[in-house]
Write a structure and sequence with these properties.
- The protein has a 5-stranded parallel β-sheet, with helices on both faces.
- The mean pLDDT is 94.
- It has one domain: Rossmann fold (3-Layer(aba) Sandwich).
- Helix content is 52%, strand content 12%.
- The chain is of the alpha/beta class.
- It is globular.
- It contains 8 helices and 5 strands.
Length: 229
Amino acid sequence: MSQKLFFVAPPPKVDPARLFGKLIVIEGLDSSGRTTQVSLLSDWLEQQGFAVIQTGLKRSELVSESLEQAKKGNVLSPRTISLFYATDFYDQLENRIIPSLKAGFVVIADRYIYTLMARDILRGADKEWLKILYSRAIIPDAVFFLNVDCNALLDRTLQSRGRLDYWESGMDIGCAREWYDSFMIYQQNMRMEFRKLHKEYHFNVINGNRTQKTINTELKKKVEQLLEK
């Protein structure tokens, strides 16, 4: 079994050799179907006898509620929001992800630091500063990126919610005056940032324009191969 790696160094008092589980990340743009696939994979793995735990953004007991309130007001600077999300991530890393990996769990993350980096870069953050900010993060055993066309993202968003989200449309950074135009521009820009991250961090790109069942079948095969190593 290979030892867990960290982007620069592990958090204090964390021994990578004692992290026996697997960290699987499902990444993708908003409405790309990540959450559905995380749920399907979790159910399937539990049926196979694996202990599974899910994690994701804004799930820290320490700051998730405060972060949600801060976003509603839209009064904080992009740097402050970025640090809020980093606090959310590291609290979950310390209290949820690392303990679960020590216990041999399969941890499935519905988005990871890559989404946070892409969002922050579009809001003016320096990439090297972000690398330092997340330097203590664990390198996942696998990152699956659900690649979905932006027109399909728009259709899925409207079908599921009936409206566009302020943040998912990039309205806070003035992509465009009209919500529709802003959504398309923002999501296209996010796709471009993810392409750059893919080149650097070597995501496993999955065609997310297909049916849920087809995508899930492919993911299960790839996860099964990973767990056999």
